[in-house]
Recover the amino acids of this structure.
């Protein structure tokens, strides 16, 4: 029980896997949202909470900082800390999460977007376009002459020729400065970020994340005991100055400069330089998710943030799972010299090394020129499908949704023109069998974003037109 | 600085990824081993250390408990806590570890046992015996007719038909009570244990581990912030009564009942029942690593511990990586109902789902009867190779080593008859190009075990005879 002006706050049990900070943060937030800690009421000092629960004051301070950041509590010199009079309203009604900070994500998203893929599934690439029979031929050839070395255990960083092929590719197409020794083969972005978050940082370290941003990132960061700090993005990407205000001493920033998720914007050069400057000044690490950068169908390719870095501060995450097919499970980290060792050590401890034969097949696919060819083909196809979505949205959805101009990727945000919330729009769409995600799933503190995330990559003209009509009907029913 | 009778102890910085408990434990241990905290000297009370470092007393107590467990400090009522007068001698000379508790493992083991595989590499199966051209045919057939579903994202638990095949296999061959819904496909034992350790337990939870035991297990457990408690094993497996003495309220026990690593013993039925009884009484979870159980070449197959459990307390870990080939990267967890959800949630968050096409190929391999056939063949081959190692050890190594009777697996302990330490023997062997690991690598507190771990699975008669002669020469040089 925390006593607060006569109010007693029951603090529930800590759930498995929940850090002390997360636990305290969530319990206090719950007490505030449920009204047990009333608006304007004074909260005990961090020191007395620490003593009462036998936890360190640092833990309590970290929980308080997150509550401050998110607007649940207010702190004024001389007045102590009080519950805010205006609360972040989008969280109401609040349900007690089953597991820490995961209430809107993971399993739920997965079940909504499972095959069969239907419009406007925002995460699915056009898997049916993948040249699977070519892949089968390469696989058969490689497997018949497989060396015992590829069958045996391998290098935790991955198969050397594949690492070379990846270094070549990111060098030529993304302007990335790297050598094969800096490439670590992973199963994809999540795996790469999990390895980084657990091996390079300390529990309690703050990490800037984009708001809105990919919820999967935040989950991985929190699972490692790190504290995500939401920093707003605009049409030029992450607003670095706001990050510096909120958490000047964060240990890292996670960004999607090539194609911001979910807004689709590209980070401007001045912001990139400002971000690098902050990282250099504070020795923070920048984690660049080069998400969807391959599918730029408008404008010139923008070199990766990593290519501007001269100080070994950027870790780049890439993935083959969207570019080839999601069931492949291959991605990579490009790590500077100084960060390789801890990442590789954890990799070896947690899952040894990537599968040998599969790495060799992917390597053959890249070195045979098939990867570049497939990319080119998909880039054109996705550009067409994006145009088709625009045309059909103009025709059927103009009353409901407005689409920004995007330049890359598999999906686009579609902002609501009516009064529906993102969640209401998602529900209405789902009822009629449309696959989509409300932008509220990716918003952390922003109040100004309402819309749906619409994918176009996996659907032909007819499917897009049918989907647009159906979505219009769904939203009509809820105007 | 911790002040202790005028002695000042510099406490170093906490390394990334190191929990507060690990950090304090290691710093105090280092201060003791380096002689800065002298034998017999009194250590400040947990309370004053907690206040001084602004950490919780619980954290300090946990670090102290581990130091007590391992014999570095002694606690007597009325006398406070003092540095032990006799220290665990095998740790001297002690080097400050670069990363928490990982000083003897990981990268080092890996580099020693890398291909080319030579006698007596203890971790390598006979990969050259794997029917790779049959696998290539199955792969080619499956890939040419692959469904879009297998190319797309899948179920975090794995491909349903593969889970069925695994449930069938562990049911018939290991007596495991399970249904396909309880099978989670992983990349192997380490991955499975990492998922379990992070999703089911809280940082600071104690886990019994076998002494001697597999160091890779301890690493994964520590990476999750859990505290391994070393419990001695004898020829009947884990000595449950000692576990109950040392850590009665541990939250889990990690055991290798089928084939203890590295001693090769099988856990007796009475110990199994005693372990289950403890788990039932304390609601602890038993993590059963069914390591090498497939390769039983003597005696009857022993059903898994899981098959005796009626209370959903056992998580079973299995792997295809040793049975088929290490580069495959497939294993599984068999989880009771109540533990499925948190494991699957973390799995989805950290690496989504296993690779689709590969799972289908493995499934075809099992369902076509090739898996059972390969197992039978390997069982006979390994039995022969084990006999060959015994014969050659009798002939060339009788002065140096004594081999116990083992009934399963890819390797055997070989106990030193001379005065060499395990480490000296390993060094001498390595100098002449023999691949082996000293048993000291797997010992946690035991003083009574000196020997080498010798693998026989990957070597023919000639290689084993040559290896035995070479090893004899190496050990002769160091008598």
């Amino acid at each position: 029980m925390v006593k607060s002006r006569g109010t007693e706050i029951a603090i529930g049990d800590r759930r498995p896997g929940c850090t002390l900070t997360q636990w305290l943060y969530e319990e206090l937030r719950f007490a505030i949202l449920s009204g047990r800690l009333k608006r304007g009421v004074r909260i005990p000092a961090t020191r007395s909470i620490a003593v009462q629960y036998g936890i360190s004051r640092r833990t309590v301070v970290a929980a308080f900082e997150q509550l401050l950041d998110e607007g649940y509590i207010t702190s004024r010199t001389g007045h102590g800390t009080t519950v805010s009079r205006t609360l972040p309203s989008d969280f109401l009604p609040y349900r007690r999460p089953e597991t820490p900070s995961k209430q809107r994500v993971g399993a739920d998203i997965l079940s909504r977007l499972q095959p069969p893929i239907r419009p406007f599934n925002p995460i699915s690439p056009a898997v049916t376009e993948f040249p699977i029979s070519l892949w089968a031929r390469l696989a058969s050839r490689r497997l018949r002459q497989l060396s015992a070395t590829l069958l045996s255990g391998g290098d935790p960083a991955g198969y050397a020729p594949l690492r070379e092929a990846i270094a070549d590719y990111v060098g030529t197409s993304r302007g990335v400065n790297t050598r094969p020794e800096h490439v670590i083969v992973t199963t994809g972005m999540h795996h790469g970020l999990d390895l980084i978050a657990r091996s390079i940082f300390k529990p309690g370290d703050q990490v800037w994340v984009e708001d809105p941003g990919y919820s999967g990132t935040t989950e991985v960061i929190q699972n490692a005991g790190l504290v995500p700090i939401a920093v707003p993005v605009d049409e030029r990407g992450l607003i670095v100055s706001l990050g510096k205000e909120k958490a000047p001493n964060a240990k890292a920033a996670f960004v999607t400069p090539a194609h911001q998720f979910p807004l689709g914007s590209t980070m401007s050069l001045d912001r990139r330089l400002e971000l690098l400057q902050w990282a250099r000044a504070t020795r923070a690490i920048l984690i660049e998710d080069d998400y969807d950068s391959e599918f730029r169908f408008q404008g010139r390719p923008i070199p990766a943030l990593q290519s501007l870095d001269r100080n070994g501060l950027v870790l780049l995450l890439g993935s083959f799972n969207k570019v080839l097919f999601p069931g492949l499970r291959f991605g990579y980290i490009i790590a500077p010299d100084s960060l390789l060792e801890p990442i590789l050590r954890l990799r070896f401890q947690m899952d040894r090394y990537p599968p040998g034969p599969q790495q060799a097949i992917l390597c053959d696919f890249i070195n045979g020129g098939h990867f570049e060819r497939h990319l080119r083909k998909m880039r054109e196809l996705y550009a067409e499908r994006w145009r088709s979505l625009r045309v059909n949205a103009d025709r059927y959805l103009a009353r409901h949704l407005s689409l920004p101009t995007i330049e890359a990727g598999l999906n686009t945000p579609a902002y609501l023109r009516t009064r529906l919330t993102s969640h209401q729009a998602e529900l209405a769409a789902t009822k009629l069998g449309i696959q989509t995600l409300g932008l509220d799933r990716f918003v952390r503190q922003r109040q100004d974003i309402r819309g749906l995330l619409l994918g176009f990559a996996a659907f032909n003209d007819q499917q897009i037109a049918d989907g647009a009509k159906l979505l219009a009907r769904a939203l009509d029913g809820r105007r």
User: Anything to note?
Assistant: The two ends of chain B are 45 Å apart (CA to CA). The longest helix of chain B spans residues 370-396. DSSP finds 16 helices and 17 strands in chain B.
